[in-house]
Amino acid sequence: MSELEDKENKSILKRGQEFLHLHQRVESFTQELLKENERLRFKAASLEQENKSLQGSVKTPPSDVLTERVRNLEQEKDELLKRYQQVEEENIDFAKRYLEIEEENNNLANLYVASFQLHSTLDFREVVQIVMEIVINLVGAEKFSLMLLDENKGDLYAVSSEGVAREKVPYIKLGEGVVGRVVQEGTGPYVAEGQKRSETTLAEPLVVIPMNIKDQVIGAIVVYTTLEQKEGFSPLDFELFNLLAGHAATALFASKLYSESERKLSTIQGFLDLLKQ
Description:
Blueprint: H1 3-57, H2 62-118, H3 124-139, E1 141-150, E2 155-162, E3 172-173, H4 177-185, E4 190-191, E5 207-213, E6 216-226, H5 235-276
Antiparallel strand pairs: 1-2, 1-6, 2-3, 4-5, 5-6
Helix pairs in contact: 2-3, 2-5, 3-5
């Protein structure tokens, strides 16, 4: 073999080795591509399976979920509005009740003052005036009369009146008419039911408050009409009626006895003075 052939063989062997090396590299790269492709396919299959699992776990579409959430929020809003209205109504009731209690406290204070005033003097005229002021300011009477019993005649006569002339108030026999029967029975205040302002008269009054001390008749407070703004009588008005029935009777009786005793003492003193002369 010549040197030229030897060089040529070496050159062919070298190129063959290079080609073999290149083939090995291509084969290695192909193997890596196949492995990467297999990994990606496995990853894709895993993701697809996970996607199917997620889709299976969601029972309703996203739009339905939002619709359901909005519906729940609307219900919560309605419940909150309802509760807010209830709280508002409770606040209104509390405020109304507070005003009622405050009014009751003021009226009770007025009742206390009225009862104190009734027993603060023994002057008959002053007691009569106090009773008249109580009936005007606390009862809200427009036309009424204060009647006392004439024990000698057995008649009720007006000692004072408001809104009607005293001399126009007729004498009333015990047991006769509404006033006479209520005073004689002495069972408690009489209030006419369903009677209008235009229907009340001196013989058919709106309210009769008999004044008795045990079984002894003192007189009566007779109300013919009340002020226009007074639509009716409250439980406190009936408490006032009872107060007047008791305290006014006692105050009038005591002041009347005191006035009569003063007149008798003055008469006796005058008679003694005449005897000394």
